[in-house]
Amino acid sequence: MQSLSRRDLLALPLLTSRPFAASAFGAATGRTRPNIVFIMTDDHASQAISCYGSKVNQTPNLDRLAKEGMRMDRVFATNSICTPSRATILTGKYSHLNGVPVFNRFDGSQQTAPKLLQQAGYHTAMIGKWHLGSNPTGFDYWNILPGQGVYNNPVLYDKDGSTTYQGYATDIITDITIDAMKNRPKDKPFFIMSHHKAPHREWTPDEKHRKMFENRHIPEPANLRDDYAGRTDAIREQKQSVFRDLTRLDLKIPPPSGLSAAETRKWLSVKPTEVETVVDGVKKTLTGKELESWKYQRYMQDYLACVQSVDDNVGRVLDWVDSNGLRDNTVIIYTSDQGFFLGEHGLFDKRFMYEESLRMPFLVRWPGGIRPGSTSQAIGINCDFAPTFLDLAGQPTPTDMQGASFVPIWKGKKPREWRRAMYYRYYHDPGDHNTRAHYGVRTDTHKLIYFWKKDQWECYDLVKDPAEMNNIYNDPAAQKTVATLKRELYRLKKEMKDDDQFADAQPTDSSYVPAPPPKK
Ligand code: CA
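Above: the input record for the complex with calcium ion. Below: its predicted structure, written as tokens.
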């Protein structure tokens, strides 16, 4: 463990929530720079990871990362949706400064962490789900899914063309990740982004894990049947309800035979209000509350089966790193591009600033730098990832990045000036799920959300009400708190240079990219 010299302390800026001189903590001075393996899934909620207290599954390999490293409990997405979060992770900037507030094409000519790592002498690789609508830049090697990609027998493409792989996406992305580590140039440290499709909708598990969960009863969250009393219109108007908005495809109801491909797609897109099923060998039509409970079970069984395959495959990466002499000097990170609702408030999907969607799981192991079994409550954001990668490589944080390196936190030295609140902004409106645009602030103890197109507010006391059921915005007793939070919200909005430049952003360009023709 390094200790801070007097010179390092002097290099820290005075009281500010701006990033600090990351190089003051330079992880790399006088030692071999660590390799970085960044594993990211798509839509994996921390409520479905056992070291975060899951009530619905066990994830022994992710737990192993936490046990041998650190579990960060307050890392948040600044715009809780796939493509924008990925752009923020690469650039260290909020959506309004990296040009990706909604599903639109990422401009790969801009500054990114992988490019800076490459210039600093790292071998860089990107494997799996990219989902940014343009080809990767700043990588020595890349091999990615086109757009969302598919779970079974996926096509991936690199600079030379596409290849169809036989098998299940999570296994295949792990195979390619391990191959990339095997085939790396041995005279350089490496940085690998290994991005899974799982457990994204439509939650298609492989057969082995599907079977593990097919008859398992998953406990329902206490607020699955939230009546939204006291909340604003936004949560009533959304179309991401487990009971109302899951389709036949999501629920894996087999279509009748004899339909054309177009008819099958249409049939599968229906949100069923009754479902015929077989209970104890007897045909039964489910409706009402019975159907609602059944839908939750079907959703969660498939979601958790997809997660279980991720957990197995994280274990494969850990085993490979450990058995190839790379354990001590490799930082392994596990995260997801945002959180997800697993029935809380009756929801699936993400987008809202509520805790389940806002929070990203963040586990990191680095035997050379992190005390095993440690945890952190520091407020982190996805803008911090790029400065962290650069700090590990001994590189300073560019002044236009909006995050700060986690390295001092990992070393148990949370700087006094670390942020005490984070700014959030979600743009798509109506988007795929009719989720109202909003922005807000989250502190250690409270959250204030402004659905600005509606001019409606919500405020939560996260200590007394962690499930965010009691909107205290209009409580007379809360008015001082609300006023303080409002000041902090607008201070942060200004500090992060959000001038509403993308206030009415609508998806301009699908982030789907067709794979180029197969390789010759
Ligand atoms: Ca996502």
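Notes for the reader.
The chain has two domains: 6-27+78-204+307-406+422-495, 214-296.
Residues 1-30 have pLDDT under 50 and may be disordered.
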